[in-house]
Every structure is written in structure tokens, then in C-alpha cells.
Design brief:
The chain is an alpha+beta fold. The protein contains 14 helices and 15 strands. The strands form 3 sheets. A 7-stranded antiparallel sheet has the order 2-1-7-6-5-3-4. It has a 5-stranded antiparallel sheet with strand order 9-8-12-11-10. A 3-stranded antiparallel sheet has the order 13-15-14, with helices on both faces. A hairpin with a 5-residue loop joins strand 3 and strand 4. Helix 12 packs across helix 13.
Length: about 375
């Protein structure tokens, strides 16, 4: 019958199409598994190896042709962190158990060495729910583990350097608030860590705070440096502050480094005083007198009140030095300097030019007739 023949042909064509689709699907899955970087091991329902992808062949040291039909536990040898053998998960999966394996799982390599691996295992079921086998995926994590170990060591070195640094250090969030401080900073500012965390450097500034303005400069630079006077307990401390911007991939924020420069600032003040004051009498010296005179003259030229300059020297001072000694002469100069200071107004300046010569600057003179009275 022609209709029966047509029906047989249709069935044959449909079966051919189905077989072709199955072959194409198998080829697609095989190509996909060949391209996967992780090691894929497939077993049948008797825990015998049915498939290894190229990554598994390379990692296990087995060719698929040699491993095919072998017991999975003979091909795959897993060990825990202590080196003890760990049974593969295939039998547990085939008998309804879980496929979880210990952490820090290690795979025994053909060379005798072991390598850290991550694992994932699952049963394989057919369309009717029948258990067909299992699949195990292993990932070689040696490089990642080594990178993580290097990172941990780097972080530990930074923590040690941070905590044990002789200078004050602090990590700050993007808004400048301290999120971590070291012991040296606590000693510098004479405060406990809890009194520093969540605070900004400006909160401890004595006088004008520069931090906010300096932070703006970080937009165009990796670091800024400035000097700042800070409250430290009941006193003050001068610090050289270095602020470095942290990279966004490190969490952003800033790294503060503070160096105590109080002794240097004190020495600078002493040098500045020595440069402008007479060591014997404590009066302004020639340099200070000249600077103040230039300032007052410039002000007078702008139409302010008049300025007078009185020069004084001591009669027979050399005779006192020669007859009574230089120590007596020095005492006399100190007494004269003190009395001159007491005899003038607060706004006037009494200075020593050198030797027995003194100068008095008299700003804001209303009447020239007052000058001889002051000189007398």
C-alpha cells in the first residue's frame, strides 16, 4: 500500500532528523566541554570514567582512552590538608548522598606533588529520572592561592609597618575621618584611639587649620605636605603632616603621616629671636630697628601721623669698662635698657644699635615740641 510506504518513509526521515539533532547536540556539548578551562570528569552509574575533557587530561595525567572504563577513584586521588586520602564523591552521589568535599582540597598529581583545587560534584539524571552517572568539576587554584598568600603577607607587612612606625600614622576615609590610627599618633596627640577614630585632623588644629585647603590640592597630586600646630592633651605639638591619596581600588581615602617637629620649631623661634634681639639687653637689635623704622616711615608717607627717632649714647662708658671691668659695663647696659623701656609708651620701640648706642622710635607724634621732653 502506497500510504503505508509514505508513512514508513516519514518515520525514517523523522528518525534521521532526530539522530542528526542528537549528534549535533553531542558535538556541541563536546566542543563546549573541550573549551572549558576547568577539569570535567564524567562517570557512569558504576562510578567508572566515561569522559575527561582536555583540561582534566592535563591535570590528572590521564588520556581519555586510557581512563575510559577505569574506576574513578583510581584515576582521581584527592587528599585533605593533612595529606590523608579523601574518597571521591562519586559513590556517595550514586547512593543518594551529598557530593561535598573538605575545604583546602588537594589533588595528587602524577609527579607526586599536590595542588589546591576547588570542586563541584552532582548526579546526572535521564529524562525519566533514572540515575545515569555523576559529574565532577575540579578547578586548579594554585595561582590564585599563591596570589592570595602574597596579598596576605603584603597586608601583614603593612600592618606591622603601620602599627610599629615611630611616627604618627592614620588611615582616613574619603571625608578625612580617621578609621585607623597607630600607637605613635596616640602618643603624639596624647589621646586614646577611641578619641581619634571618627575625627578629622582639623578637629585638633591649634590656630588656623590648613587640612581642608591642602586636601583640595590632592585632586592634582598624589600627596601634599604642610606644618600644623595641634592640640596634644593640655599642650600643643607642631607636626609635619604628609597626606597621600590612596587609589580607588584600594578603597580610596588618605594616608596621614605626622612627624613631631616641636623641637625644630622651638629652635627656629630661638634663631628668629637671636636675629632680631640683642642678647645682652633683650632689646630689639639693629636689624629689628631698621625693619620697624622702614615700616613706620612707609606709614608716615601714606599720610599717617609723624614719626620721631631719638639716638642716645653713654658718656664715659669706655672709662667704666676700663676701670670697673666689662661685667660691670654689661650690667649698666642692661639697667639702662630697662629704664629706657620704662620711660616710653607701649607703642614706642627702644633698641640697641651696639656698644653704648641706643635708639628710640616714637610713632604717632602729635607735636614736635614733645620730642625734646621724651629725650630729656
Amino acid at each position: 500500500d502506497i500510504r503505508e510506504l509514505y508513512a514508513q518513509i516519514e518515520v525514517a526521515l523523522a528518525k534521521g532528523r532526530a539522530d542528526r539533532q542528537v549528534r549535533e547536540a553531542l558535538q556541541w556539548y563536546a566542543a563546549t566541554l573541550r573549551g572549558v578551562g576547568d577539569s570535567v570528569i564524567v562517570t557512569d552509574d558504576a562510578a567508572r570514567v566515561r569522559y575527561l575533557n582536555p583540561a582534566a587530561e592535563a591535570l590528572l595525567g590521564w588520556q581519555l582512552s586510557a581512563a575510559l572504563g577505569q574506576e574513578a577513584d583510581a584515576v582521581i586521588q584527592l587528599r585533605d590538608a593533612g595529606g590523608d586520602r579523601v574518597p571521591s564523591p562519586f559513590q556517595r552521589l550514586l547512593h543518594g548522598g551529598g557530593g561535598a568535599l573538605p575545604d583546602d582540597l588537594r589533588l595528587q598529581l602524577p609527579s607526586g606533588e599536590t595542588c589546591l583545587v576547588e570542586d563541584s560534584a552532582a548526579p546526572i539524571y535521564g529524562l525519566q529520572g533514572k540515575l545515569l552517572g555523576t559529574v565532577l568539576v575540579l578547578r586548579d587554584i594554585r595561582q590564585r592561592a599563591a596570589a592570595e598568600q602574597r596579598l596576605r603577607r603584603s597586608e601583614e607587612r603593612f600592618r606591622n609597618a603601620f602599627d610599629l612606625a615611630p611616627g604618627g600614622m592614620a588611615l582616613a576615609a574619603a571625608d578625612g575621618r580617621f578609621i585607623q590610627v597607630n600607637a605613635a599618633l596616640c602618643r603624639l596627640l596624647r589621646r586614646a584611639p577611641a578619641q581619634l577614630l571618627g575625627r578629622r585632623l582639623d578637629d585638633f588644629a591649634a590656630g588656623e587649620a590648613h587640612t581642608a585647603a591642602r586636601m583640595a590640592a590632592l585632586d592634582g597630586a598624589n600627596s601634599v605636605q604642610f606644618e600644623q600646630c595641634l592640640h596634644a592633651g593640655r599642650g600643643h605639638v607642631w607636626a609635619l603632616v604628609s597626606v597621600s591619596a590612596l587609589r580607588p581600588d584600594d578603597g580610596g581615602g588618605q594616608l596621614y603621616q605626622l612627624q613631631d617637629i616641636s623641637q625644630r620649631k622651638q629652635a627656629e623661634r630661638k634663631l628668629a629671636r637671636l636675629a632680631h634681639f640683642d642678647a645682652l639687653t633683650g632689646l630689639p637689635n639693629r636689624l629689628a630697628i631698621r625693619e620697624e623704622a622702614e615700616r613706620l616711615i612707609a606709614r608716615a608717607r601714606r599720610g599717617a601721623r609723624r614719626l620721631a627717632v631719638v639716638f642716645l649714647d653713654l658718656d664715659y662708658f669706655k672709662h667704666i669698662n676700663d676701670s670697673l671691668g666689662h661685667e660691670t659695663g654689661d650690667r649698666l647696659l642692661r639697667v639702662i635698657g630697662k629704664r629706657l623701656r620704662q620711660a616710653v609708651r607701649e607703642s614706642d620701640m627702644v633698641g640697641r644699635l651696639g656698644g653704648d648706642e641706643f635708639v628710640v622710635l616714637l610713632p604717632e607724634i602729635d607735636d614736635l615740641a614733645d620730642i625734646p621732653k621724651v629725650a630729656a
